[in-house]
Each structure stands twice: as C-alpha cells, then as structure tokens.
Amino acid sequence: MRKFEDTYQHKGLRKKLVDLLRNKGITSELVLEAMYNIPRHFFLDSAFDKIAYEDRAFPIDAEQTISQPYTVAYQTQLLNIHRSEKVLEIGTGSAYQASVLAELGAWVFTIERQRKLFDNNKQFVFRTKYPNIKFFYGDGFEGLQSYAPFDKILITAAAPFVPPKLVQQLKPGGLMVLPVNDGDKQRMLRITKKDDDNYDEEWFDYFSFVPMLTGKNN
Ligand code: SAH
C-alpha cells in the first residue's frame, strides 16, 4: 500500500502556496489555514508529489480533475462556512475540497457520479481523519433529499443552470455557490435562498471547470 508522508518540504511548499493565494486576493484566514493543514499531495498520484503545491488543476482518475487551489479557496470563501453547518458538495472527485470543508468543521455530504472515483475514496486512508464527511455515489442534480435541508451547497463542476432540486434542498437563508456556463467558461454564482420560489444572485469571476453531467457512470 502507498505510504503517505508529509515532510517539512511539503509543508514549506504549502506555506508558499497559501502566501500565493493570499496575494491573489483570498482574504479568509480560516480558509487559508484549513488549506495549509491539508496535504494536497495525498490526493494526487505519487507522480505529482513534487508539483502538487503548484496552483494548478491536475488529472485524477476517470478523466476528471482536482480543482486548482485558488478555485478551492475562492469557492470555500464564498460559502462562508461555520462549524457544524451541513454542507452538500456536488462532485467529490479527489475529496480534496470535501476535506477543506471538513477541516473547517462542517458536516459534509458529498456526491460523485463516477463509480471509479467513489470507489477510490472508499479505500483512501486519509479519509479516516474526517469522520464528518459522508460519501455518496449518485447524480448531483438530484441532491440528497433524505438529508436535506442544507445550510450550504457547493457545486464543483460546470453547471448548465441552477439545479432546481438543489434550491429546494437549501435552507431559507442558505447559500449555494456554483460555476454556471457562459460560453466556453463559467461564471461563479452565489445564490441566497429566500424561500422556495425566490433567491438572490451575486455574480463573481470566470473559471474553467469539467462539466456537470446527468446520471451516473459505472
Ligand atoms: N471537488 C473535486 C473536484 C472534482 S472535478 C476535488 O476536490 O477534487 C468535478 C467532479 O464532479 C468530477 O469528479 C465529476 O465526475 C463530478 N460530477 C460531474 N457531474 C456530476 C453530477 N451530476 N453529480 C455528481 N458528480 C458530478
């Protein structure tokens, strides 16, 4: 089995990454601290060990990616996580983003539609550090009705529109952060739910995500 080591060198690179994120405009020290605490190289193939702390997305299995650290910091900051909040994440991928949310003290419910990625996470030893993450194999457009309502919802794939079932599963006053398709790119959107028929929208910067797809892939 792979041996996971977090060396002084890794910690040093992580410190530099956090400084870079601060320079790029991330202001939440809580988010930066959570990202400093998590060994991102554990979430990647060992071939990426030396470059795991570059501010880049990298390939994981099933032709998917681990998001760029700046994107993870940006989405997490917009969610304004408080301890013990219930957070639904769509697109578990490597589980790095889920771990950042868990490190901030949230109860995380994360859904992945790629069977291979879901199975990888079942075997990932580092996940035992976060008993506050629950993993689900399913279609994020459906959400998780039986665990609703959620304080916060995060979509980490490019959404074609605001998924109506996810709006329903958000608490009144709750926030959802998602990248919404706008030509070749996606624009970050934060919605604040008022009631079942109304929400406020705030639009932010442009990003590039893998697509949010319907159904499950076995
Ligand atoms: N949060 C991830 C980033 C993963 S990339 C991380 O930290 O590594 C986006 C992920 O969303 C991919 O793994 C993709 O398979 C998944 N995805 C796309 N559409 C989905 C859907 N409808 N439901 C659940 N997961 C979905």
Explain what the structure shows:
There is one protein chain. This protein is α/β, with parallel strands linked by helices and 218 residues long. It has one domain: Vaccinia Virus protein VP39 (Rossmann fold), CATH 3.40.50. 26% of the residues lie in helices and 28% in strands. It is built from 6 helices and 9 strands, in the order ααββαβαβαββαβββ. The protein has helices spanning 8-23, 29-37, 69-79, 96-103, 115-122, 164-168; strands at residues 58-59, 65-66, 86-90, 107-112, 133-137, 150-155, 170-182, 185-195, 198-207. The strands form 2 sheets. Strands 5-4-3-6-7-8-9 form a 7-stranded mixed sheet. Helix 1 runs antiparallel to helix 2. The protein is globular. The protein starts with 7 loop residues before the first helix and ends in an 11-residue tail after the last strand. Bound molecules: S-adenosyl-L-homocysteine.
In which order are the strands of the major sheet placed? 5-4-3-6-7-8-9
Molecules bound to protein = S-adenosyl-L-homocysteine
Morphology: globular
Q: CATH superfamily, called what?
A: Vaccinia Virus protein VP39
State which percent range the strand residues make up. 25-35%
- For the secondary structure, the number of strands is 9
Q: What Rg do the Cα atoms give? A: 16 Å
- Helical content class: 25-40%
Find the CATH topology.
Answer: Rossmann fold
Helix-strand string: HHEEHEHEHEEHEEE
Alpha-carbon distance between the two ends: 25 Å
Mean pLDDT, rounded to whole units?
Answer: 96
Contiguous helical run count? 6
CATH class: Alpha Beta
Low-pLDDT regions: none
